[in-house]
């Protein structure tokens, strides 16, 4: 089995958005050991493991949470990853427990052990808790795990067509292979975690979600008192203030029921200009009949269908005329089918000479007079 201590751990430079500070999440005297805890730490985020060309999907998130919770003592946490020339001795922080999938992240609690307050490098627990309170966007947690290569290859083969892997996760635009683990080793605090680009805590819609829950309670739309982590406000006092405001201004909050279709507002009536422009469009497209069709209330599409039907009828009539004319032409008697032989020009001259001699033989010239004779 290949050890992948750095599969989602190598510190890389990349853009990271700011997140809310975590003062309310740090309890310096609480936790599993009583030496402090940071609650709601982001362990891993769904998406690309930056720098590793691997994809963290929902299945990997669940596997991470299950692996943490399967340890009754919690998952080991250290201050940065051990290097090639050093181990984790002296960087031990404590344990991570209480993991859960929250949206597109796995979040858990980081509990500091007594040893983390007395390391060769000083009080690392205090240092990490101070960072969590003041600059949670500047560091985060990175997991260390063993890769399950067989599972990764099986998933890749299952989603490969014509030699090309297509990720089943539509957000995986680059079709990176999906990460799979055989065992989870540690969750270490690092500067730039590859699979936790938002920093130490869960980001996203936390502020909006809390504000929405508080407003629902304050406006009387919900009876559940919200637990606020990002707003320094008492929901009960906010609700009382809102209710006084509504009462003072004679306002009332009610849920609006969906309007039945029968009561839906009618479509706005066209103006005179709209009517004229539409009529011109019909006439320009369909001629004089377009105006008649428009007046009859026909739609533009219906007029197109009528025009097509008329053109087809005209073509059918023309086809019938052509067929009729072809029949008449075939019935005309054009005479002999073979040409008549009238002879050559020389034969014609011989016939004319013979006729002339025959006529001359019928006359005898006596004493300068011509006398007709009988043949």
Structure, briefly:
By secondary structure, the chain is an alpha+beta fold. 35% of the residues lie in helices and 19% in strands. The model is unreliable at 1-23, 83-87, 192-205, 364-368 and 370-375 (pLDDT under 50).
Would you mind describing this structure in some detail?
The chain contains 9 helices and 14 strands. By secondary structure, it is of the alpha+beta class. It folds into 3 domains: 188 residues, no CATH class; 43 residues, no CATH class; 48 residues, no CATH class. The strands form 4 sheets. It has an 8-stranded mixed beta sheet with strand order 1-9-12-6-7-8-3-2. Helix 4 packs across helix 5 and helix 6 crosses helix 7. 25% of the residues are buried.
Number of helices: 9
Terminal residue distance: 142 Å
What is the share of helical residues? 25-40%
Name the average pLDDT: 76
Largest sheet: 8 strands, mixed
- Give the C-alpha Rg: 50 Å
Order of helices and strands: EEEEEHEEEHEHEEEHHHHHHEE
List the uncertain runs: 1-23, 83-87, 192-205, 364-368, 370-375
Spatial shape: elongated
Structural class: alpha+beta
Total number of distinct structural domains:
3
Reading side by side through the largest sheet, how are the strands ordered? 1-9-12-6-7-8-3-2
Multimer state: single chain
Per DSSP, what share of the residues sits in E-state strands of 2 or more residues?
Answer: 15-25%
How many beta strands in the DSSP annotation? 14
Topology:
Blueprint: E1 3-4, E2 26-27, E3 37-45, E4 47-49, E5 54-56, H1 58-69, E6 75-79, E7 92-102, E8 105-112, H2 124-134, E9 140-147, H3 149-158, E10 160-161, E11 164-165, E12 181-190, H4 206-218, H5 235-248, H6 272-286, H7 288-295, H8 300-331, H9 345-360, E13 363-366, E14 369-372
Parallel strand pairs: 6-12
Antiparallel strand pairs: 1-9, 2-3, 3-8, 4-5, 6-7, 7-8, 9-12, 10-11, 13-14
